[in-house]
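Our consortium's second objective concerns turning raw sequence data into structural hypotheses that experimental partners can test. To show how far this objective has progressed, the report includes one record in full. It was chosen at random from the queue rather than selected for favorable results. The single chain below, 261 residues long, was entered without modification.
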Amino acid sequence: MEFTAGNKEFEALNMQLNDLEKLEKYKMLYDGYRTNILPRFIGGLLVRLGNIMYGHEPSYLKFRSIEITARVPYCSWSSAVYTLLTFFYFDERKAIKLSSIARYAGIAHDNETMHLIVISHLARAEKRAGRIRHALLPIFFSIFYFCAIYILFLVRPRWSFELNYLFEQDAFNQYSRFLDLHDEDLKNKLIESKFLEWYGRNPKNQYDFFRSVRNDEIIHRNQSIQNIDTEADGRRVRFLKFITACVVAAAFGIGAYIFLW
């Protein structure tokens, strides 16, 4: 799916996913996706650290910390695309693919920024945040996450998208759990946000808002897998295998030379 300026396609899909039957059908598209071991390890580490620091159950302050980090992949992809286009501007097919990723990353980054600003506003009214636990530590997580996403994108984009898939899956689960636990309470809480109005969403209450955020996360999750270029990924795998074989052969040759010498 191509998301254009104004986010009309994105917002239309978000509204459709308010229907639980359509949500489940959309979610099932990639529910059985199996990620590679490296993104699975990094993603599992981030989720475990988040649960240790902010608890297993969802909360306003946990969401604020999540959203500080959730913006990172889209900024990182934009930076990685800028780097790659510097070297591959002569390849139109590759340039179109990279530019499409950058366009989507911009839309998703704005969306995650909206989450962060609005949820931070709501969190202040619920509970006081700790400066280290809820502000400083998420920044450290974000720096690590940015570097991981950036490097993985340069080495093998599939791993970068899969890592974001895992992070967005956890975010979707957290928001779904929050809605299940506090649905009636959230429906009775009004929401006022100038930034939300500027963004173009007008939820009637906090339930509507958090439901739209839940929908955003599953869209981000699925789009991460849809961004994978299978053909290019296959070429990159063959190249990596070739480099690995050369390194192994060189190491074997050097070892044999030293042994015989």
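The partners drew two points from this record. Residues 62 and 110 are 20 Å apart (CA to CA). The radius of gyration is 21 Å. Both points have been shared with the crystallography group to help prioritize constructs.
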